[in-house]
Design goal:
It is a single chain. The protein is an alpha/beta fold. The protein contains 6 helices and 6 strands. The chain has a 6-stranded parallel β-sheet with strand order 3-2-1-4-5-6, sandwiched between helices. β4, α5 and β5 form a beta-alpha-beta unit. The longest helix is centred in the middle third of the chain and has 25 residues. 39% of the residues are buried.
Amino acid sequence: MPAALVTGASRRGGIAAAVARRLAVEAWDVALSGWSRYDETEPWGAHPGEADDLVAELRGLGVRAARHEDDLLDPVAPARIFEAAEATVGPLTALVCVHAHSETGGLLETDAAQLDRHLAVNVRGTALLMAEFVRRFGGEAGTGRIVTFSSGLPLNGELAYAASKGAVEWLTVSAAVELGPRGITVNA
C-alpha cells in the first residue's frame, strides 16, 4: 500500500485534513505532521484532541495513520518528522506539503523577524522536507510524488506570506526540473 506524509495537519478541518481523507479513501497509508501551538495563535484556534480524532477517522477508513507534532521553525524538524512517519506507516511514496505560516502585515508593518518566520516555515521547511523525501525515497522510478501548496494571488496586508508562497512556487518548479529525471514528480 502506498504511504504519504501530509504536513500542516493539526486539526480535523482545513486543506491538510481534506488531503489526508482523500488519500485514505484511495487506500493510502497516511502520516500527518502539524504544530498545534501555531493554531493557538490563529482565529480558528487549537482544539485539543482534534488531530488525534483525524487519525482515528483515517484508521476507520482501513489505512494505517499516525501523527507527529513538530515545529518547522526548527531546521532539524524535517528529519524528525520523517523518522516518525516511517516508523508508523513505513516507507513513503509521497510528500504533500500543506503547512503554512501566516501573519498579517503589509510592507510598512513587516519586520525582519516576521519575514524570517515565514521564510523558515514556508520555504526552508518545504525545501528541507523535499530533500529528506528524496534522500529516503526507495521506490521505483516514476512512483515518487511531491505536492506543494501555494497561494496564487497577491495578498494585500500579507507581504511576508505572499513572498514566501511565491518562493514555494519557484522552489517547486526548480525541484520538478531536478527530480523529474529521477522519476519523482513535483507539482504545486
